[in-house]
């Protein structure tokens, strides 16, 4: 903290964030749109986090009634929807919006105005969802998955929350399809001279695979929501009790499982950028990293029914989905071993982004392993709808996606703002988050094995009280950690140490321009002869590497 | 500012082969992939319900004669109309690529008119179906039928808006043999709408009327 004496900011970028609102509303600059995505995502994170704390208070002891059961159901639904649709996916889109054009040496996205429209659909979608609380006589209360027939009129008691949710998700899907089209076109058509496909940074590859996934599964999600709405408003019979409720689950999970990869693949990409930079080694197995991404894209669309092992499917169908699900651990495993091999014998610098990257490896590994357990039909029949699943999904989503988001923010904040984040706060942020996270979710596995069901407003078994109390206390440690993070962001943005163009001695093109980059991104694009153009430049110049700033992250 | 000059700085690298296809066109191709998935999901829903019913379409209410949709006359006429519009559209785009503006205007306007005719045909079909009691609520076949053809109709309507927009831009002289990505992209979209109709006609009309 002592390091954050206010240093002067380079003059021409003095107005990084505090621009007139009219500029924010109408800009087509991918960097500003990226920042707006990220700010929207962060606000959603805080909101959904507050819901989580209320949920944890309610569950901290048996038989509590901090909130009543109906409110509780609305809270868990809002928590899930906000975290998945409005935080993780949106924040990652923001990072990619900012970074992808820079990393491939483009001046902007292929369709800047589509980009702007796509972004503004996100707040519309969020407001629509929360409209349910204000005008809907209660928001969605069927969980983020919104299973039919719970969402049908017959079970909703006049509440319009489901309608607000369905509308919101349709808008979200349209926005996502626009963003994906834009990313893919940009990546195919706007690469700088010399930036062959095989010279693209792995983050760009990860974003391409993510966009392909969202492009494919976004429309089925919209279709599912449209049909739910038709059932409710036009009296059709798709998912009603006379219809085929399980069909809803198929449509939803055909989106839902790929969505979990939409939330993790960009994170994989960021880790593939961060580990080579701080291990001072090229990534191990570049081509196998790319191949693994596309293996995951393909496999992730063939596994959706592993969420439905208890609905009574044909045994052969179940076996098929079980095998495909287990297969997905193979490309994921390839990525893991490549990351470890990259760091192996490297001269590792444990900066804060690197710490988050290793935190990610540790926690995501546990989530991946519990995933393979759950993929086994007989095991899942026992564990489905229990806290074991909650533990699994948080290990992959929080320990996976959210840790990579933190890693990415610590890594790219200097580029975006021109200032370094405080290292001391960053270390505190990391360790409190790591301990708080594991304290919260590790023992949830035990609760699940002991049979505590998920999505219940309270429980009567006194034996679960202590465990739940530990979880609740740990969850407040997470909240404290996020608070540290936010303080770090605000303080460093206003007065952090000046970063310079390339504080990390990184490899990819975004570090070749100023921090923050000018509106047109590059004054001059360096020659690109490999996937590490900046490293090539440094080696060609023969200058000794500049040490990483010691005091700031 | 110096931005403009900077953007055109010479880069000392062999110029790479850029994709021959224009971003606008590529964007349309990529976007249509998601449209394929949208209609694909609706077809999947249809087949799921087809497969999980003993009789398909479900037996109509007692006494209703000619309850379900027939192939003739309107649907078959509509099919011919929409498929001809694919040709007019294609040759219109071809004409502008050769700077033949007169031909472009005639054929493009014909496309719009044929599209409109299709929409009116569909509207007529819907109204007559409703009048004989075939509506969204009667059973799952009806639900799927109206939603699928309805969304197709909405896409045709969207196409008509795009076609008109292009007509307007063409009237202002914005297209020629060098610049016609907009025309090409909308043509592509229009063909897509056609292809969807082909499958709808095959499965919802022919399949229902003539299945064993
Ligand atoms: C090795 C990789 C993985 C395997 C084998 C796997 C397997 C599974 C299985 C079988 C379930 C269903 C459990 C049940 O409901 O009974 C599940 C649930 C879930 N998984 Fe995974 N998973 C993997 C990776 C991931 C990743 C990377 C994410 C997200 C980043 C993720 C997020 C989720 C979520 C959110 C749920 C719960 C959905 C719900 O019911 O609300 N999983 N996983
Ligand atoms: Cu899954």
What does this structure look like?
- The complex is a heterodimer of chains A (about 550) and B (about 210).
- Chain A has helices at about 20-25, 30-60, 70-105, 110-135, 160-190, 200-235, 245-280, 285-300, 315-325, 330-345, 350-375, 375-385, 385-415, 425-440, 445-450, 465-495, 535-540.
- Chain A is built from 17 helices and no strands.
- Chain A has a single domain, classed as Cytochrome c oxidase-like, subunit I domain (Cytochrome C Oxidase, Chain A, Up-down Bundle), CATH 1.20.210.
- By secondary structure, chain B is mainly alpha-helical.
- Chain B has a single domain (about 20-55, about 75-210), classed as Cytochrome c oxidase, subunit III, four-helix bundle (Four Helix Bundle (Hemerythrin (Met), subunit A)), CATH 1.20.120.80.
- Chain B contains 6 helices and no strands.
- Residues about 1-15 of chain B have low confidence and may be disordered.
- The interface between A and B is large, with 49 and 41 residues.
- The complex binds protoporphyrin IX containing FE and copper (II) ion.
SSE map:
The complex is a heterodimer of chains A (553) and B (212).
Chain A: H1 21-26, H2 30-59, H3 69-103, H4 112-135, H5 161-189, H6 202-233, H7 245-279, H8 286-300, H9 315-327, H10 329-343, H11 352-375, H12 377-383, H13 387-417, H14 423-441, H15 444-449, H16 465-495, H17 533-541
Helix pairs in contact in A: 2-3, 2-4, 2-16, 3-4, 3-5, 3-7, 3-13, 4-5, 5-6, 6-7, 6-8, 7-8, 7-10, 7-13, 8-10, 11-13, 11-14, 13-14, 14-16
Chain B: H1 3-7, H2 23-51, H3 74-97, H4 101-131, H5 140-171, H6 181-210
The site of copper (II) ion has 4 residues of chain A, from helix 7.
